[in-house]
Specification:
By secondary structure, the protein is mainly α. It has helices at about 5-10, 25-45, 50-70. The longest helix is centred in the middle third of the chain and has 21 residues, at about 25-45.
């Protein structure tokens, strides 16, 4: 049996990945925008405060990991 939308929608047991739990593209995009905003803020802070910039850039990487899990 081929693994396609119809077989997944009908709930047939198939070999391979479970396509019903695909990542949500809207959540992924929102998380990407948030990550980019934090990263831009971090780079803007570099000339003013290296500590703040470091915190923001590390936070953006943490959001990037979460982004890949949604």
């Amino acid at each position: 049996m081929w693994l396609n939308y119809e077989t997944v929608r009908k709930g047939y047991k198939t070999k391979g990945p479970d396509l019903r739990n695909l990542p949500d593209p809207d959540k992924h995009q929102k998380m990407s925008f948030i990550k980019s905003g934090i990263r831009i803020a971090g780079y803007i802070c570099i000339p003013f405060s290296l500590i703040t910039a470091t915190i923001l850039l590390v936070a953006s990487e943490i959001v990037g990991v979460i982004e890949e899990l949604v």
